[in-house]
Fold DUF4292 domain-containing protein.
Amino acid sequence: MPKLINRILLFSSIVLITASCKSYQVQATRDDLPVLHEYNKRYFDDAAKDYIYKANIAIYGKELSGILIFKKIDEQRHRLVLTTDFGNKLMDVEISGQDFLVHFVMEDLNRKIILNTLKKDFRLLLQKHYAIERTYSNGTTIIAKTKTGGKQYLHILKADSLLGKVDYVPHRQSKLSLQFSPETTGFTKLINIYHHKIKLKIDLVYIGK
């Protein structure tokens, strides 16, 4: 296990300091770092706001840029709308932990493999509650191991327990990374979603509420 931690820390050599709002239970360790048992991240959690991001998407050889809007509908669902910079709709979907409803999708994105991948990525991005199975620490960084849908994830956190990165690590290899960089509590200014085995990368920069 130490070898796994070292590899993850090496791969995550630049962990962005974050400031998302989380509720969690802790207990002190010998080096006074918290051991997380659970927490909730609160990105996209205000139903009164539209969270608007400049989006650059490289997906299976296609390049897209535009505006991606996240809107909380209720405690279970969010609506995501991707448009061009001029307001032409490219994708309009509703997503929850159980459902994925497509209102509209442009022809180039209307492929099963693309929609399934985006569904999984956005579902992980929007997931609020995480139950922590085990935590490790090197004194300045905390690695929290979780399972969602039977899949193992490593959450890379700073010593203050603020989330900077989520790695999907089947068979001890990083397959998918989500990286965050909030500037104030409750939302993240930068989001980077990167697949290591397929050609899919999403870069989001927050531009307004």
